[in-house]
Amino acid sequence: MKICVAQLNYHIGNFESNLKKMMNAIEDAKSQNADIICFAELATCGYPPRDFLEFDDFIRLSNESIHQLQKMSHDIAIVVGSPSKNPRAEGKDLYNSVFFLYNGEIQHVQHKTLLPTYDVFDEYRYFDPADKFEVVSFKGKKIALTVCEDIWNIGNENPLYTICPMDEMMPHKPDLMINVSASPFSYSHAEERLHILRCNANRYKVPIFYVNQVGAQTELIFDGGSVVVSPDGVIYEEMSYFVEENKVFDLESVIRGGVKKEQPKDKIKDIHDALVLGLQDYFNKLGFAKAVLGLSGGIDSAITLVLAVRALGKDNVRVLMMPSQFSSQHSLDDALVLAEKLGIYYNIIPIKEMYDSFMIHLQPIFQDAPFNVTEENIQARIRGILNMAISNKFGNILLNTTNKSEMAVGYGTLYGDLCGGLSVIGDVYKTDVYRLAAYINKDENIIPQNTISKPPSAELRPNQKDSDSLPEYDILDPILYKYIEECKGPDEIIKEGFDETLVKRILRLVNINEFKRHQTAPVLRVTSKAFGVGRRMPIVGKYLS
Amino acid sequence: MKICVAQLNYHIGNFESNLKKMMNAIEDAKSQNADIICFAELATCGYPPRDFLEFDDFIRLSNESIHQLQKMSHDIAIVVGSPSKNPRAEGKDLYNSVFFLYNGEIQHVQHKTLLPTYDVFDEYRYFDPADKFEVVSFKGKKIALTVCEDIWNIGNENPLYTICPMDEMMPHKPDLMINVSASPFSYSHAEERLHILRCNANRYKVPIFYVNQVGAQTELIFDGGSVVVSPDGVIYEEMSYFVEENKVFDLESVIRGGVKKEQPKDKIKDIHDALVLGLQDYFNKLGFAKAVLGLSGGIDSAITLVLAVRALGKDNVRVLMMPSQFSSQHSLDDALVLAEKLGIYYNIIPIKEMYDSFMIHLQPIFQDAPFNVTEENIQARIRGILNMAISNKFGNILLNTTNKSEMAVGYGTLYGDLCGGLSVIGDVYKTDVYRLAAYINKDENIIPQNTISKPPSAELRPNQKDSDSLPEYDILDPILYKYIEECKGPDEIIKEGFDETLVKRILRLVNINEFKRHQTAPVLRVTSKAFGVGRRMPIVGKYLS
Q1: What is the pLDDT of residues A225-248, one digit of tens each?
Q2: Tens-place pLDDT, residues B417-476
Q3: Is B112 an active-site residue?
Q4: Which fold has domain A2-265?
Q5: Of A100, A416, B258, B319, which sees the most CB atoms within 10 A?
Q6: Taking the domains of chain B in order of start, what are their residue ranges?
Q7: Quick one: DSSP state of residue A533?
Q8: Nearest-by-CA chain A residue for B14
Q9: Rounded CA gap, A59 and A357, in Å?
Q10: Which residues of chain A lie closer than 8 angstroms to B217, CB-CB?
């Protein structure tokens, strides 16, 4: 028996495009004599559809796609994820289901049991869990179908759920398992995924075909990396990251095993590739081609620019350089060197006259109040207006260049440098931004050495440096990591050897700046805990603040 | 037996202040010889604590508050909501619990069963449901304790859950029920609440003490309106809306019944009072006193200003008037009349010179591109900078003045008029904004008649009117309501008699402007479906767009 794993890039709500992609993959699989083709979780409508699921019209369109796929299922069985209606009055209105289509008919529907409702996931918001666990028979094989999280409750010390769906199916003695997933990337996730899959194979002694989607949906980046596992728990094949792939496997060969193919893993390379894909899909799926950003000469905008050029092409990216009276000549020089190196279009607009115009009109109100963060913010906001003017006039989406360390402590100006449709490196700590720079420069000096080696500065007042108001990033970032990713409290962090006053100050800064993060762009997620939909904090709370 | 219902305004994460409030209420209840005092759901830590719940330190502090309350429970029993740890490895780490404290001890803990995970609620993200249902005996009475949603699964045609916790407790023959709640306001919610409480009394034939919290937590406004119900289903007393109240009831008298006291209900008055409370608590709980906003002469900023003055006092609110070359004289005049009427401080800053300064620097890039939305946005963004300059220099929080109709169709400038720390009327449709104006003017002309009667205009180009690009609001608003509040699809709305082209255009506008709403301030929620945390839509989706 031949099984095709179709690792595709779906678009939420774009039923026509999703269906067309699946139809093409079916034709390709048929040409390779596949018996079964497998698509991802909620492949008809794309994942995560969020509150679109609350519209009957949206569910009707998902069902219509299933109906179209049924018609394609005469010479090949189709395994595909799609929402389905809960026929009972009680409970949530929907199930998150996997369909088995063959001979023009729906042969079997299995609902998802374990509904992730943590971090970026909200599935219990929409779906009722399964209460029936059956297998489907096909060409003499019994196949267990599971949906994503349903295989994630073994091999954990602190299991989130009290039931294990595959355990429920084992009395039916399945010959193989197909899992349809939509499991988003973080730089540590591929290892966890392989671990869970090995645990499943070891427990159930069956081959597993794990089908992930690929592509970004706003902030969530799906890396693909679909996996075929032999019954002995060896990874028969881990498919490519960050690209579509349609691959046919011979079941007997997978069962026999003796083959092992895992993708190389490299945190910084994977983050780099994820961000490039995240950028591409944000633009593609919104129907835009061109980006703009402000290039300061600092490392954050330099990295963002390189990623944008790699994602969109140099002809689709333009930059503004907007020096003020506080900008150093080396900043402008470094920006120019990079722009020339990349061959991109740029404009230089000094902001002093606009700044002066604001100050003249505000002086009668400010009178002799001393220069403070107000005047710093005005500069950042003038740059925001100029960037957005280019965006509006020429149809370029403005990219936000803020890193995770700054975003965490609120070191940025709302409506100023925090402007932008997408935050590209908002989930990358500053210390990893330097690692990304080293990775980009590994074969050739692309980012100017001076941009990398000079002390970080916002240059919004004379001789300003980040270290005037923040600790060095190699101290700040570990504290932020423990608080944000690991959810450790102040006492736990202090016990690990960090200065008490500093820890309390940093945690307070994180908490009192929630209002800024509430109003910033979606952040491409590359860690296990990004700002945005996966981290939900009260704004008027009074905790550690 | 005397039972005190303590309707208090908690502050998320402010354990010290919450505990102090509860201790004062306990002293007051004791002085009135109460046998039991009842606080709200998660009263120790405030509701909703969101992801603070993921910090062990936060749970430790909640437990510490329970420990402190135990010490107060020698002469009075205390019923209080607080998170508690799930001792099992499996499942979520926490329960949403109600504690019964007496004689210095925890006499009973009942966990919440029905965990709302829809709209603004995310409880399944944190909590495991109860699997034990017991009553507590106190002074010869058996008391059933339930938490909020646990009483909401009867009297519905489409019940969300498959279990009914009070049904499980009935074999223990409880004499009364105490429900601790944190149930947020919308203008239709009080009626629904009374309906559910009557259904419960009719089904179980016991008196019910329903304790709600009062006060706003960022966007969610809790109206109080705690309820005592006689066993015959008559509302013995519906307590006040929008204020703290500590009230002692005689159980025998409630059981006897024959008393009925419900609060008067008026949609527009209730919205008005809710917004005033929402404003007050946003400022109080963040530790700010002063607001600023841009006063245009239009109705939205006029209403926002009146609400702000009522919430914060006239000495704490200042405005900027920022006419451009496209502003009409009557706009400035109307703004001046209102500012003088309210006796607030104002400054006038014409924006033409700043606008010209931007255009001079952009001209070499724009060349002869025609005037379009770019130039309109620059004006709105200059006003944003000026408002934020006042905010930064003097510590006034900027209030956003956008209404729900504009927010829905994206009729507003990101980083311009969409700036602000809090959206005051972002959940009020334009047609209801007019009703609010009529309510505010009911006794005295506060908002100038001209502000109310003139055609709405953004005045960002010559002779511009809202109706140039949008349908009249009395056509737009019903379409938006059906799509946003009722989740109806295009076909359903068209079938109700609306123009097909118009419906499709409006729904498309709503969906393609998701990116703007993602970056705007939290919106005070007064309807059953507000923009923000309760409505989660993909940004790169392609549905009806």
Answers
A1: 999 999 999 999 999 999 999 999
A2: 999 999 999 999 999 999 999 999 999 999 999 999 999 998 999 888 888 889 999 999
A3: yes
A4: Nitrilase/N-carbamoyl-D-aminoacid amidohydrolase (3.60.110)
A5: B319
A6: 2-263, 270-466
A7: T
A8: A542
A9: 54
A10: 538, 540
